[in-house]
Design a protein that fits this description.
It contains 12 helices and 19 strands. It has 459 residues and is α+β, with helices and mostly antiparallel strands.
Length: 459
């Protein structure tokens, strides 16, 4: 029986993706985990690896087409047919695509040539740790292999209560208990409206209007009356940014606190250690120290590492610190996420940041690279400017804006001396914190930046 692969559950309420490139052709033989599609989601452009090895029997999508979660992307020839063996009995009924990742593939035992049920992120972790997924016993729903299973097989210890946040998301995606990163109510409504399951690949639908919250804007005037105009369609990513910024700006009461940090000593420390860090394959940057300082400050001010559940009247305090860093690309602003940064030294943060930013600029970031953030830093210093008020990355509670550091005349101990001053702006949700809270949190970040030796030690 032919094996179908559907667009998997992308998490965080994402219900559709646009096909950018099809990297295979019908009849091609492809190995498991080899990239075979590039798609653009509401987050970024990502590669989808093949969940199994085999021959591509039919491609159901084309570049430029928008597909929904659960729709068939490609059909693989039967594993026995490819291997030249007689076909075995068909899989048990009722296991066709359901909107989660490849249920048919998950149902077949791995030793019969079917793929091991696991998400792309888990597969990538297994490759990094040198773990053969076929030898791992999956503890997720329907036998799915989770990140915790892979780490256990590699000899590592699971953290927390035995299941990572991504593992919980995988379990929810496969039909287990609901998790905070599951499909949003609006996503569920959209899927229900679409019939709840896979359907033949439709022609590319007309672009939906951008989200408008509150009063409807008045109609635009006929600009052609005053001169020639040109209409340029917004990209999928640009439309998503517009939607999310409109949502944040209209739903969250923003308030901004401004401060400055004297980073003269920090700049000198970075310059002294540039070559030593480069010899270790690391580019030491100010952003790495900003991430470290912010993560440690968030420990003392957890209300800024939170999300507001307005309907429940509760503040969701996150006990993990996954910081997003805004990266400017040719396609628009993308925010990849570095995980558990409060537990990592500056050098490790710098190494991860460099690799992550490069994947984003190359269009190779995965869904897992782009979700789960708890706080965002937007550093526009390389582009200039004296300050900025960024919009909060909803549903986070705050965002730190950083402008270009400049040498200024500063009075210290009665003397006018040149110092390198870094402008900072902390924008936060006024529903979860007051102005005094914001001032204390910003001061905590400033204090850490002004004592770089302590920052290196994680103090």
């Amino acid at each position: 029986m032919a094996r179908r692969f559907v667009l998997p559950d992308l998490g965080e309420g994402l219900t559709e993706a646009e096909i950018v490139t099809v990297l295979v052709a019908e009849g091609d033989l492809i190995r498991e985990d080899a990239p075979f599609l590039e798609v653009e989601t509401d987050k970024a452009q990502v590669e989808i690896p093949s969940p199994m090895a085999g021959r591509i029997e039919k491609i159901h999508v084309r570049p430029g087409q928008t597909v929904r979660v659960g729709e068939v992307l490609v059909t693989f020839a039967d594993a026995d047919e490819v291997a030249g063996r007689p076909a075995q009995a068909p899989p048990a009924p009722g296991l066709g695509p359901t909107g989660a990742a490849t249920r048919e593939a998950a149902a077949a035992p791995a030793h019969d040539g079917a793929p091991v049920p696991a998400t792309p992120a888990t597969r990538r972790l297994a490759r990094e740790l040198g773990v053969d997924l076929r030898g791992v016993r999956g503890t997720g729903a329907a036998g799915r292999v989770t990140e915790v299973d892979v780490r256990a097989a590699a000899g590592g210890e699971a953290s927390g209560d035995g299941e990572s946040p991504s593992g919980a998301r995988e379990r929810a995606a496969a039909g287990g208990e609901a998790s905070g990163d599951g499909e949003s109510p609006s996503g569920a409504r959209e899927r229900a409206a679409a019939g709840g399951g896979p359907s033949p690949a439709p022609a590319r639908p007309a672009a939906k209007p951008l989200a408008t919250v509150g009063l409807e804007p008045p109609p635009l005037p006929a600009f052609e009356r005053w001169g020639p105009v040109e209409r340029a369609p917004l990209s999928h990513l640009r439309r998503t940014i517009a939607d999310r910024m409109t949502l944040s700006a209209t739903q969250v009461p923003h308030v901004t606190h401004f401060d400055r940090a004297d980073i003269t000593e920090l700049d000198a420390l970075i310059r002294r250690n540039l070559e030593a860090a480069r010899e270790q394959g690391v580019t030491l940057t100010l952003t790495s120290f900003l991430i470290e300082a912010t993560a440690l400050a968030l420990r003392a001010h957890p209300q800024f590492n939170a999300s507001l559940d307005a309907a429940a009247g509760e503040l969701i305090l996150k006990r993990y610190h996954h910081l997003g860093v805004a990266v400017a690309t040719e396609r628009g602003l993308i925010v990849p996420v570095l995980r558990d940064v409060d537990r990592k030294p500056v050098m490790e943060i710098a190494r991860e940041l460099g690799a992550l930013a490069q994947r984003v600029r190359d269009g190779k970031a995965t869904i897992e690279d782009l979700r789960g953030g708890t706080f965002t830093i937007s550093n526009i210093g390389a582009l200039g400017g004296t300050g900025a008020i960024p919009i909060i990355n909803y549903p986070e509670a705050a965002i730190l804006g950083v402008a270009r550091a400049r040498e200024e005349a500063v009075v210290r101990e009665g003397q006018i001396v040149p110092r390198l001053m870094l402008p900072l702006s902390l924008t936060f949700d006024h529903r979860v914190a007051d102005g005094a809270d914001g001032a204390r949190f910003a001061s905590e970040i400033v204090r850490r930046l002004e004592h770089p030796d302590q920052l290196l030690l994680g103090l």
